[in-house]
UniProtKB/TrEMBL annotation:
The chain crosses the membrane at residues 38-57, 63-84, 190-208, 214-239. Keywords: Fatty acid metabolism, Iron, Lipid metabolism, Membrane, Oxidoreductase, Transmembrane, Transmembrane helix. Residues 1-22, 333-361 are annotated as: Disordered. It comes from Parasphingorhabdus cellanae. This is Acyl-CoA desaturase.
């Protein structure tokens, strides 16, 4: 596809306005391409979900359609949590080329853009979390303006997909834009989306039901499955930065929210995650269910992945504060090099500058 690389070509990154933060583009072809791509993805999910509702009310649907939904939900939940998020964004472990490709395809089956785009956007979220430069904060919009609570929740959930700002891939895509598996996934993002939403559910219907189940399984087990799950992924950005508990006093609004964690296979332990972004485990206590973390452990035992990053263990001290069981240098497992988009872990000076800009705005 001729336009497949438009959003990673340096020439496309000409902004029409300056943004206070490095690596954030306002306007220009890259921001327009972002709105078009997210618009196609989201509107197909919404229209397909309305179709699923109509089909459920007017046709006999049953285990064929809903087993496709459940199987696909598990697959894309693993893909997003392990693939887009813990592996491609945060480098929580290492894997060989075949595994990296499989993880990338599994992630893109959720139809939330290419691993390159998702990871670059999410690195920017960590670089500026709830400050000027964050792309989906419930507190501040893409241009750095403060928002009221309800508007903020809406912008952090879906609104940010359609603003005229985007992430500079040259800054946040480091270590990804020259990775052959990442580029393969990026180039094939539309065919993977069509396979996941239409072809896979159709084959499922033929294998377990018959031709009369094809349309219902595509609508329920394809488009509605994507839309239903998307709300939980976006919910971590919106609800997960407003509602829930904070074990760690991070410089953002991130929260641990058990319901979001159950629905996202662990990523809803979002305050833990902001404290230890590189950890392959978002659940830090035994009761913090983290299905994707268990899967990574299983893959590690099977030898499929290695060098798995772990957060230090925490216990409560006599004052009720959470402290590291054995005092570790927590920075060391967190740091990513500049070449890996390491700007996400800005030093104290950068953070102070960002905060000053946020306060001024
Ligand atoms: Zn966050
Ligand atoms: Zn993250």
């Amino acid at each position: 596809m001729a336009t497949a690389f438009r959003d990673i070509q340096p020439g496309e990154f000409e902004p029409t306005e300056a943004h206070p933060q490095h690596g954030v583009i306002i306007g220009g072809p890259a921001a327009r391409a972002k709105r078009i791509e997210y618009g196609i993805l989201l509107s197909s999910m919404v229209i397909g979900s309305l179709g699923a509702l109509y089909w459920t009310l007017t046709h006999a649907t049953g285990w064929v359609e809903w087993s496709a939904f459940l199987f696909g939900y598990i697959l894309i939940n693993m893909g997003v949590g392990i693939g887009y998020h813990r592996f491609y964004t945060h480098r929580a472990f290492e894997a060989g080329p075949k595994m990296r490709l499989a993880i990338g395809i599994m992630a893109q089956m959720a139809c939330q853009a290419s691993v390159l785009k998702w990871a670059a956007d999410h690195r920017r979220h960590h670089a500026f979390s709830d400050r000027v430069g964050d792309l989906h904060s419930p507190y501040i919009d893409g241009h750095g303006k403060k928002m009221s609570k309800w508007k903020g929740l809406g912008i952090a959930h879906f609104g940010w997909l359609f603003d005229n700002t985007t992430s500079d891939m040259n800054v946040y895509g480091k270590g990804l834009i020259d990775d052959p598996q990442v580029l393969w996934c990026h180039r094939h993002r539309w065919s993977i989306a069509v396979f996941s939403s239409i072809i896979f559910p159709a084959l499922w219907a033929l294998a377990f039901g018959g031709p009369e189940h094809i349309i219902g399984t595509i609508l329920i087990g394809g488009f509605f499955r994507n839309f239903f799950f998307l709300n939980f992924v976006m919910g971590v950005n919106s609800i997960g930065h407003v509602f829930g508990s904070q074990r760690f006093k991070t410089k953002d609004g991130s929260r641990n929210n058990w319901f979001m964690a159950w629905m996202t296979f662990g990523d809803g332990w979002h305050n833990n995650h902001h404290q230890h972004p590189r950890s392959a485990y978002a659940g830090l206590m035994w009761w913090e269910v983290d299905v994707n973390g268990y899967i990574i452990s299983l893959w590690e035992k099977m030898g499929l992945v290695w060098n798995v990053q772990r957060a230090p263990k925490y216990v409560r001290d006599s004052d009720g504060n959470w402290v590291q069981k054995k005092k570790l240098n927590v920075q060391s497992p967190e740091a990513m090099s500049e070449d890996d988009g390491g700007l996400m872990f800005a030093d104290g000076k950068k953070t102070a500058e960002t905060k000053a800009t946020a306060d001024a705005g």
